[in-house]
Amino acid sequence: MTATSGTAAESGRTAWRNWAGNVRATPTRVVTPASVGELQEAVRRAAEEGLRVKAVGTGHSFTAAAATDGVLIRPQALSGILSVDRAAGTVTVAAGTALKDLNRALAAQGLSLTNMGDIMEQTVSGATSTGTHGTGRDSASLAAQIRALELVTADGRLVSCSEKENPEVFAAARLGVGALGVVTSLTFAVEPLFLLTAREEPMRFDRVTAEFEQHVAENEHFEFYWFPHTGNCNTKRNNRSQGPAAPPGAVSGWIEDELLSNGLFQAVNSLGRAVPAAVPSIARIASRALSARTYTDIPYKVFTSPRRVRFVEMEYALPRERAVEALRELKAMVDRSDLRISFPVEVRTAPADDIPLSTASGRDTAYIAVHMYRGTPYQAYFTAAERIFTAHGGRPHWGKVHTRDAEYLAAAYPRFGEFTALRDRLDPDRLFGNDYLRRVLGD
Predict the structure, then answer these.
(1) Is residue 114 within 8 Å of residue 189, measured between CB atoms?
(2) pLDDT attached to residue 280
């Protein structure tokens, strides 16, 4: 990638808030660079003026990881596929590219990522920097699929890194929480486009927890949702298929993905926020209304779903062998409490990886995510859930609500010191720092 001349678009003080609306910031200025050179100049200028710098994608994080009172970099003009290497099985993409645009462009070229999360609104740099993941027995997070990257460091240099070039930077910067620099491009491993068959099936809580390890072992991608105040779950198994493609019908797909998962779900949550006492009854009715379905399609159409109902989320990564016990404790806590939870709890898995700050670093992992409808008080629920998750050695998702600090995280991540030492070398003056990074990484 080469720098080009020009002047980055700038605006003065403009309030920014994230997708969920729970984080707000007012930067001194917002810069939208149209080239890597403009991005480098924006970083150098901010350093000269004593302003801190943060890059922000689409704001899908629930933490203040991207918040700043200094210079806010919006990388959306740095977008698109830069190159495809079919022999190496890689694609290089500019950092501001939305995952939905990448997925569609790859599919048009007969290519696909191996695994992905369940939404695709984020930019590739924002998603990887915070540890966005899907579910997989053998295939890991988006960051674990990175084969090379470029980033602008605090001195304005453009640094290229991979397993062979600046390997110590590459190891950490795949998931850097914005602490090491501003990512400008990412090279992902890709493979020829394939088909996945999804099987969605209601299942009782006691059964799915008793059979959890079996389901994980037997399926390439297994996840389930538990509906609080009930003993009901919905399971989803995604496995590769020889085809033929058999996507959901236009009408049935709209009913399931738009009417039920978004339109009706929005109305139900609004009712639950207005009348909390109605939530358990609503949950029982909604969870019993689910029916089994099977469909086959290209990966991103199976892995991802539209998410239009806004919420706040906490997610913890637990050692996989501790997940079922923690989930049972969570259910018992909700059952004996006065909490009213209208959002299902999501459970996914990931294999161990080698990224220092990955939530799956060094251990096979299960994720438990709790959600609350936007505008509904969530602190009591999240506090109680977090107490359970941390008792089981949980690691909080870097982009989702949590209260952990550097002392806790240093104990939770064996390679935490490796990351912070690299940060001290690349950004000794904390040009890319903010209050969130001070809490989670120390100063």
Answers:
(1) yes
(2) 83
The conformation of residue 84, written as its DSSP 8-state character, comes to E
Cα–Cα dist 430/82, whole Å = 30
Name the strand (E) or helix (H) holding 415.
none
* Cα-trace Rg, the chain: 21
Residues of the chain with pLDDT under 50: 1-6, 254-255, 258-259
* Distance between CA atoms of residues 73 and 55, nearest Å: 4
pLDDT of residue 1: 38
112 with 106: CB under 8 angstroms?
Answer: yes
The strands making up 232-241's β-sheet, listed across from edge to edge, are 293-297, 195-204, 232-241, 221-226, 345-350, 365-373, 311-319, 395-396
| Cis peptide bond N-terminal to 306, omega within 30 | no
DSSP three-state, residue 34:
coil
Question: Could you tell me the sign of the dihedral formed by the alpha carbons of 308, 309, 310, 312, in that order?
Answer: negative
Q: How far apart are CA 45 and CA 320, in angstroms?
A: 46
Nearest residue to 182 (alpha-carbon basis) of 78, 84, 90 = 78
Name the residue with tokens 């998750």: 389
CB 141 within 8 A of CB 350: yes
C-alpha dist (Å) from residue 406 to 129, 220, 395, 438: 18, 34, 12, 8
Q: Which of 141, 135, 295 is nearest to 221 (CA)?
A: 135
Rounded Cα–Cα distance for residues 179 and 125 (Å): 13
pLDDT 10s digits, 152-198: 999 999 999 999 999 999 999 999 999 999 999 999 999 999 999 99
Closest CA to 419 of 367, 365, 352, 354: 354
Indicate the helix (H) or strand (E) that contains 298: none
SS3 readout for 228-267: CCCCEEEEEEEEEECCCCECCCHHHHHHHHHHHHHHHHHH
What pLDDT is attached to residue 90? 98
DSSP class per residue in 218-230: H-SEEEEEE-TTS
**Given this model, what pLDDT does residue 255 score?**
46
Within 10 Å of residue 358's Cβ, how many Cβ atoms?
Answer: 26
**Is 69 in a helix, a strand, or coil?**
coil
